TrEMBL record:
Gene3D superfamilies: Regulatory factor, effector binding domain. The lineage of its organism: Bacteria, Bacillati, Bacillota, Bacilli, Bacillales. PANTHER family: TRANSCRIPTIONAL REGULATOR PROTEIN YOBU-RELATED. InterPro entries: Reg_factor_effector_dom_sf, YobU-like_regulator. This is AraC family transcriptional regulator.
Length: 132
């Protein structure tokens, strides 16, 4: 699948004191762009330093915005997690579940490229690359 990057940051979930501000900031910037208002949006996690405790890039992207930088995402080798969009912290709770599965040896992550897909209808899914 080809996605087009609108904005990117590099951060760390545990050691970057500005992580939350960085992530909410780029999402806010994208939400303020009227040309992508009615498009599905993707939060793509890539360029992992190590595992979920290391540095990574987060890029916000859409499937159709060809003037932006292209990012090719494999569509195979993922485990899918549905997020409850009615919960205020649903995405964070899903990530906590993913990290716990990994810590317990129940999820063998590939750390290539993971992504969240935010549909226009409000549904959210997280796709985690797994080793095959």
């Amino acid at each position: 699948m080809e996605l087009y990057i609108l904005e990117s940051i590099r951060t760390n979930n545990f050691t970057d004191p500005e992580m939350y501000l960085k992530i909410t900031g780029i999402w806010q910037n994208v939400h303020e762009r009227p040309e992508v208002e009615n498009m599905a949006k993707y939060g793509v996690y890539h360029n992992y330093e190590s595992n979920y405790k290391g540095n990574y890039d987060l890029s916000i992207a859409t499937a159709s915005f060809p003037t932006a930088t292209k990012l090719t995402v494999s569509e195979q080798g993922y485990k899918n997690f549905k997020v409850d969009p009615s919960r205020e912290n649903g995405v964070f709770e899903a990530w906590q579940q993913i990290w716990a599965l990994e810590e317990n040896g129940e999820l063998d992550r590939a750390y290539t490229m993971d992504y969240e897909k935010y549909e226009v209808d409000g549904s959210i899914e997280i796709y985690i690359a797994v080793k095959e």
